[in-house]
Amino acid sequence: MSTKVRNTSSQRVNQLAPSGIRKFFDLLASMEGVISLGVGEPDFTTPWHIREAAIYSLEKGQTMYTSNSGMPELRRELSRYLKDSYNLSYDPNSELLITVGVSEALDLTMRALLDPGDEVIMPDPHYVSYDACVALAGGTPIMVLTREESNFELSAADIEARVSGKTKAILIGYPANPTGAVMSKEKLARLAEVARRHQLLVISDEIYARLVYGTKHTCFATLPGMKESTIFLGGFSKAYAMTGWRIGYAAASKEIIGAMTKIHQYTIMCAPTMAQVAAIEALKSGEPSVLEMVEDYNRRRLVMVKGLNDIGLPCFEPRGAFYAFPSIKGNGMTSEEFAEKLLREEKVAVVPGTAFGQCGEGYVRCCYATSLAEIEEALLRMGRFVKKHKK
Amino acid sequence: MIKEILRILENDARTTPKQISTMTGTPQSEVARLIKQAEKDRVILKYKAIVNWDKVGEEQVSALIEVKVAPQRDVGFGAVAERIYRFPQARSVYLLSGTYDLLVLVSGKTMHEVADFVSQKLAPIEEVQGTVTHFMLKRYKEDGEILGGKEETKRQPVIL
Questions:
Q1: Which class in CATH covers the domain with range A11-46+288-388?
Q2: CB contact under 8 A, B23 and A303
Q3: The complex's ipTM?
Q4: What does the pLDDT look like over A320-370, one tens digit per residue?
């Protein structure tokens, strides 16, 4: 007989919003022949030269821990990369930390910054980890609603309206998951003014920085005076198709990186060595692969966006990441109903926008990091579905 | 724009002008016109499939033949190369730097057929000073495509 335990999980965990779409996932797992536009990762495998570098490191027996902060060579290469890309100077010895994906970096950031009750302002909709990481660190997530009418960009005025005595930081993630939105340099500059005026930190998740189309990514830390107060998070998953390697980084002031490293050394020790070796190779010679993949995503993006608009699912033009976020409001269903019915009737999986916050109601996320043939077949099926359920 | 269209077609020749139009934001009629022009200019030579004949049990023998050639006054290697590439058995003909001059890829139904071609057609050409024939044992990759089957990767159906 097993021992009975009361209250297994902590209140903090219990209070995390249960994922409403668990049911949807279970249904999906039980079905066959589904075309999934529900993924959140590249369909490319990691370029061979990167995999080969990691394999070679294993053959050589590079299987030990590295420095807590990450291999010195990787931090040097990263520092050079950030200098070349954004003209930002981060000291590889004190201002960079190699993490287990941006996910860990985000968690560390929140735990390093927040005291109970501290507030973090973030856009709604947003990537699912944002509010959870804040809540797990004892903070309170504060939502600023973003709308399709304003291209899902954050308004500085809306943020300012939510600043209180408890506000600690603003958390942004552009290019955005789930909307594919990017923010212009001008809009980001206005946001920077608000941060400066209220002496707030800005956490900028720039994991999709390399995946922008017909526009240039603005790194938040490059805005005047923002480097010291920005925690810049980035990674290798999306640009180099390295999701499974779990490798990312944080770049910030010495104090903040020091605080994050303290937690990291107790909980993680160091990012996986082989993934760090792969990341070095990616930084050294991965650029042509990135450009090739971006060009390819762009073609599929155009097919997806035009296709959605053509079948009657109006879709604003996403300029980043690999998501389209069409409106399904014309069908008289909630996002969850739409996603579930579409899956049951046409075997196409999309993610209900509500998985990413209340502003996601009326939208679904469609990932176009899948083959052109699948995109076209999915559009065909969705077109049939929309026609059938037209209100 | 034509380069972008060619890159798309080189990767998949069956991409339609309509699809290319969407992918590039160029009007469909303009895409069709550019492709026609490229065909006319012999920028696009041909549309064909890369076939893995092994899978349908079709025996095929290929050989790479190194050819040493005495170049001729005025025409260099060109004239000899032409005499060779006019034979349909010669699938590809390249001029190379190094220890020999021409590399000829020859295909046939049997080893005999290929050997006959070398001994009766290729080697007797006056300017050909010598040949070395390498029969192909296995094709791993053809024109950028791995023949042994694609790398199958399994993704989680939904990731947020």
A1: alpha beta
A2: yes
A3: 0.76
A4: 999 999 999 998 999 999 999 999 999 999 999 999 999 999 999 999 999
